[in-house]
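Q: What structure does this chain adopt?
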Amino acid sequence: MTELAYMTRDDWAQHATAMVPQSAVIRDWLGEEPYLFAMTEMKRHGGDGSVDLEAARFIAPDKATRIVFDVSELGASARQGKTVDHAVVVLHPRDERSLESMRTAVESGAVSRLFVLIWWPLDIVAIWLDGHSALNLHTGEAREVPDPLMVEACTMMISHQYNGLGSGRGKEAVVQLARAFHAEGYPYDVDSWLRAYFAAGGDFRHAESIKKLVTEMKAGVKHRIAARYRDNIFEIIRSGQLQQEQ
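A:
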């Protein structure tokens, strides 16, 4: 299982006053040299004026200790069954290609330790990391594990995502399960559902559909759907969870 940690760029830089000490914190977590940096677009971000390269230079001031490569190589390693038994730094991943390469590498165990420098605190990668209880190196803490009942519900959603989660059976699963949990006192909270979805192994592309649907439900939108599960689906999930714990 991959060990995960992160820091937001705001917490790392702190108005350009904390890059040096915060980079030392990151180095302590990464461990021994060399330092491996996965950039999202080598051609665009690998130049001297790149914010990616700027971060890499602070984290590893000695150029001889830096190895820089495209983040797509992580996904390629996963598909080839290779493993990287060394800490990897992913710098500012935001586009779906980069996010999926990183996710695939983590979930296949292709990388042993991975640190992510997040561009913006509201980026979806932050929710993915929290869904996997990654360590926030700025606070020294990790978010609590997502609710296991919600994780099980999201596993059920994932089983219907072959044609997407924004329409058809996928949408029916998301809406009915979110409604069932809401009836039991769970709020229509996008972050909670996404953390559970990522903990269940969900990908970034379909996460957007869950985000959209839960946001609409919170706003009062009444989705017309066919029932995908029994009316007592929440009790069925809870009973199954209790049996697993016994």
